[in-house]
TrEMBL record, chains A, B, C, D:
Membrane spanning residue stretches: none
One Pfam short name: Transglut_core
Domain Transglutaminase-like: 160-220
Protein name (record): Transglutaminase family protein
The organism of origin for this protein: Xanthobacter aminoxidans
Length: 277, 277, 277, 277
């Protein structure tokens, strides 16, 4: 299943500014980039770096004052595996791959150490496995209002637990937090989200179950089989689409994703578990 | 129904210290003090003051260095009214007595402005009235663990909402917070609690319904008809049994309450609503 | 010294809504109302209540759907006392009037229990008295940025201590918090502020020193001798100019204050301490 | 300069428990392990994993119920470089090695996004470089009380900024937070600390300056040239000496470090900057 993704970002740079940008589709096992193109205007030199493990691709740009435009488009082939959710187990901590142990730890926006008692009370008695993480997502969907503008870049899962309102990023943070509190490795994923309306960058999360990372979207706004991931990390602090060091004004952006084969276009949101790595 | 209450507090005063003590039974409409005695050793002079509205009685003592012992005992007649809970309505904000409007406002430990969305989602659709406040207490009892030592004097309802553990004071704060968020006036009450085991100062809360203050104990540890109130206020910051300005060490205390007529001693915890004023 | 004050508030009421309004000049010892007029349009019936101690005057209005306009104007004579700051002492806790002891306690936006160590470290060694509270104001002025829009109605002194930005209300909360942490009674005051530019409701604080309440404005934006107080209380939760229970939209307001005798108009901001009660 | 380090940990395991232990000296460029020995009793099988970048070495143990004892000792040769502090510059964000960019991001205990305004106000005007980070350490030392028991494993830099008390871990978190807020990469380091009295695991931090990681100890309790690092990471959540998944009781531990060549034993705490990587 192939998708065409595109994003355009516009800035007005006021003083020499370093941009860390993370807008390109991640290079992942089940997410293959067919063609892509990144254009900067002005054409400042870029340096590339990647998070080996998650496949997130960053560029660093030293931008000079003036208008600065970033345009990315690519065609990405997704090869996600769909599985029956009830067949997917959790893994004992003692058997987790050692290189993902840190996805059990609390992070800036996911204070799993503080929400542990709640998570164990609410979800501790449920049957372990993919269905338990779905129960977590259902809880979030049912107990937190999706309200644009109700949170900001400093809002954490701790806050959302009390305030009960947020956007996709907050929903993902809360899901990650509950998973980690139950000893399920979980991480944040930003991406291009097929069928998201209106189009925008989206945030979901992944939980490590039965030897694979599985996607979850507690907002229920996107079709998981059409989630082209950009950044993967501990939480939003690892996956900002743009971080600026200097003075620059964000002027606007546009984001799009389209299915580019016919079969996909007809496809219903899956009811299966979606494994991505 | 009469109760004998007693409390003894021991301090070692290190430097001249002002004590604000609030251990005497409050003088309230339905709580009449038959006899009482307050003894300080050494017998420092005291100044008395009271919160007119709630009837809380405070003393201020300028204590000199050395051992300092406070002993209070009294016999209190309680004249609480028991009513069928389902007959007790909430009152529209526009009809509340004007002198209790401030019990709708957030306070140090009861951030009702922050927990409003949760309260409305969880309790907003319930039938208004005494039964709704009971539903709030049931929620607290079912969702928060009573764990000695899990909180401290700085723990607020905001924290308890996330951490999901606390003691009587935290349970009361959470109940107050939810009530205020639903526009039900609510206040904190400390007291001597009959049948509390082990004996200790206790904390409950009152909600203003149908023209009366009604008692609620989300911990379910005390018998409401045997709750001899000491301090009443916005939250625990208004009703500390002891506040010290100076250097003094708290060495220990004992607290007791006994029913002193036979009928009382047999009495079961009531299933009725208990109005106290 | 006389001032003409005026405020106009506009609302669009969507469903029957209870308003608690606090826009009239407070009736205080040294603040005498010469003439005044409150007009509501439509002319809904009002109920009045007051906080005896502080003199704040509230009205409760049951408003029906439709446009709702509130207009208040009055002439107020101020009789504040100016004193040499260095002559004004702090009072020992043991000698404070008993009816203001609660202004030592922490409140919703003034967590003096949490900021105590800082306050004692930073201000504990200073000479007690009016000059120490001025030092507190200077610290706030020098260490917190006045930035419109940087805080909201839920921001507390705890937050401002970390975030280091706020508006008049946050500055006042921080000043109150430091005072209480040093055992100086302190309270919040809202008012019409002469020479404030642009005109708006303003927030300052009062500290109890040498037997009087003294005004302080850590923002340095107003002339203290021209501060016509409206609401006085523990913090902003006691002194909101408008609280709504129901659905109503705030459409805008205007606020003004003018000196109405010639001598006043010439007057410089005082460098003296200003006692108000 | 060589050091003998040793740690012993005692647990009583109640149910099968997974331990993640991080007590071995890290394998780092300027910290060479001469000999070492890790003994578990009972001798459960272990799995090893390391954080490539920082050199932290973890073991995972599946422990069965009963007493569980961990003993580690090693001899480590330290080859730190001492440099004149005033010669060490900060690096522009645009020139930082790309693989350490994440040490600019906020983390669980280091909310550099929230403390940015304070950091820039307080330290923003200082000359960039090693001396500025020393100024940060001096500020922490002067403004935060070192008080055992004043914080716990959930205390973050945000809290410490208000509460102004903590232990080594809190001091390190605050230092890291200020550095990141100033765009200086910074990370947490746990270790065996020569001359720390009483002996214990210690926490310090590293800042990336002029192409090297430099050690800083805002507590001033250890000699930097004798800091044998164990764990390095974003904050304490990456460098716990022990994390348990299961039921086990911590019974006690002992930690020691001794200089094992004569010259070292005489050495004064350095006044130079200490580079470790």
């Amino acid at each position: 299943m192939r998708f065409a993704v595109r994003s355009s970002l516009d800035y007005e740079v006021k003083s020499p500014t370093v941009f860390i940008l993370n807008v390109e589709a991640a290079a992942l096992h089940r997410q293959r980039i067919i063609v892509e193109s990144l254009n900067l205007n002005p054409n400042f030199p870029i340096e590339r770096f990647a998070d080996d493990e998650g496949g997130s691709r960053f560029i660093r740009v030293n931008a000079e004052p003036g208008p600065f435009h970033v345009d990315y488009h690519g065609i990405v082939e997704m090869d996600m595996i769909e599985k029956a959710p009830e067949t997917i187990p959790e893994m004992p901590v003692g058997e987790l791959p050692l290189d993902i142990m840190h996805y059990l730890y609390p992070s800036r926006f996911c204070q799993s150490d503080l929400l542990g008692r709640f998570a164990r009370r609410e979800f501790g008695e449920l049957e372990p496995g993919h269905t338990r993480v779905t129960a977590i997502c259902n809880w979030i969907h049912d107990h937190v209002d999706y309200v644009s503008g109700s949170s900001d870049s400093q809002t954490s899962a701790y806050d959302t637990m009390v305030l009960r309102a947020g956007v996709c990023r907050d929903f993902a943070h809360l899901g990650i937090t509950f998973c980690r509190a139950l000893n399920i490795p979980a991480r944040f994923a930003s991406g291009y989200a097929w069928q998201l309306d209106p189009p925008d960058f989206h945030a979901v999360f992944e939980a490590y179950l039965g030897g694979e990372w599985y996607l979850f979207d507690p907002t229920r706004q996107s079709a998981l089989q059409g989630l082209v991931r950009i950044g993967v990390g501990r939480d939003a602090s690892d996956a900002a689409f743009s971080t600026m060091y200097g003075e620059a004004e964000f002027k606007g952006m546009s984001v799009s994703i389209d299915a580019i084969d016919e079969s996909a276009a007809d496809k219903e949101p899956t009811t299966q578990a979606v494994a991505v790595g």
